[in-house]
Amino acid sequence: MHLVSVRLLAAIAFVAGSLGGAPAIAQGEVNVYSARQEALIRPQLDAFTRTTGIRVNLVTASEDAIIERMRAEGRNSPADVMLTVDVARLIRATDAGLFRPIKSPVLEQAIPSQYRDEGGRWYGLGLRARVIYYNPDKVNPAELSTYEALADAKWRGRVCIRSSNNTYNQSLLASLIAHKGAAAAEQWARGIVANMARPPTGGDRDQITGVASGECDIGVANTYYYVLMQSGTDAEKAAAAKVKAFFPQQSGGGTHVNISGGGVATNAPNPDNAQKLLEFLASAEAQKIYAEVVFEYPVRPGVAVAPALLAIGPLNPDKLKLSRLAAHQAETIRIFDRVGWK
Ligand code: FE
Description:
This protein is an alpha/beta fold. It contains 14 helices and 9 strands.
């Protein structure tokens, strides 16, 4: 933005602030701390600025670095909004006291209740499913059904799945605890460890690549990785072409889904703009960008799923309220430790 217009905005903000008794500065901006890659979130933020005139200052860092920074900054933190992926991380930030509750009829209407915190501290903005990938030369999809079935001895030495220190598997295990109880979830985790084709290595894409290379017959990874690989590097395209996606428990309770999302910072200096930003990110316009740029499923009902994502299979999401996973975070870590899931 040009210096002159920044000054003008500041002057307007000063007048508005003086009249309303609010802080005089920074009426026209919002500070975002984001654990998402800038390329994935910039288009939505730019659309927000175009629509509202509110400038977005974006800081991108790892989730841990952001939490550390917000804690260190304390009451002086300039962060208004924190964006991240995975409900486990949103819960972690909530437990660290970094989010303030906000009450917004707009958000409550736009986002189904299973994808947001009952206390209004975090809101899901995009949806991803954690699904099974298989090598069609070695696996008949009729052999696939549920996550639980992957623990069956028939898959011994055939499964690629990433490390337990990643929240994606922590949330998957937490959902199994919520549905089946801790004992059954632990038995499942033990079975998966026994069935691993290799010690856990790499990220989600590497599990898909492992299936393509023949190192394993089954992989587990989030949906957007597979779709991104289909239009990625030549090697990724070739790998994706050798692998098929299978959506588990479509009939038995629904496929495990997780969210990307965010909340308004406890010490936000611009809380009104922060709320406006979340409301915008939940709007049909921004949800369409989420779908097309990030290949997430829109959380907002009625917004079209990207054709490339729709093409890999219809999603029947698990109806579990994601806030219920909060109670099982510590237990997932203990189970992974006990069963030796690296
Ligand atoms: Fe991811």
